[in-house]
Amino acid sequence: MDPAQLVAFNAVLLAAMASPGPALLLALRTSLVQGPRAGIATGAGLALIAAAWTGAGLLGLDIVFALFPWAYAAIKTAGALYLIWLAVSMWRNARNPLPATPPNRGHAFRTGILVNLGNPKSVLFASAVLAVIFPPDLTLADKGFIVLNHLCVELIAYTGLALLLTTGPARRAWLGARTGLDRVAAAVLGALGLRLLLEH
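Structure tokens predicted for LysE family translocator:
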């Protein structure tokens, strides 16, 4: 493994993180609603499982999914139902005032874990990207370094996003349009959940 391969992997990873999806949407909304600490905690949960999926891809979990499609279907269905539940909750609470109590960072971390845990497509994506970028004869140390690198890249990206979104101007702009934006976010999450549930 050489540095150019790692740079290519990180570029693809950042591009994938920036594409609209449940992980990015959850990180954005949590940071805006609950503040930077909860946003960072959510990002940490998302990053932990995303890196774990990359590790699984390096160890050949995509082959297990091919041999046992019911396992893939079970994880995907659970993840889809969780996204739909999040969407319904978000829609119902869009007009409610923000809670006065401090955000529960443990809850935010668990939510991040559950959202990415229910997305087994991540391991298929990771396997495809890894096969294109890295040689097949990676050592165990190389694989461990790639997983650690993935975790660090996502932690840095989500922390930066949480800190950026909780600046005064960004938060004021969001508060002014909160109900509509929450309804849009709920609709997008619900659509993503339905798509995950219905696709073959």
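Residues 54 and 126 are 5 Å apart (CA to CA).
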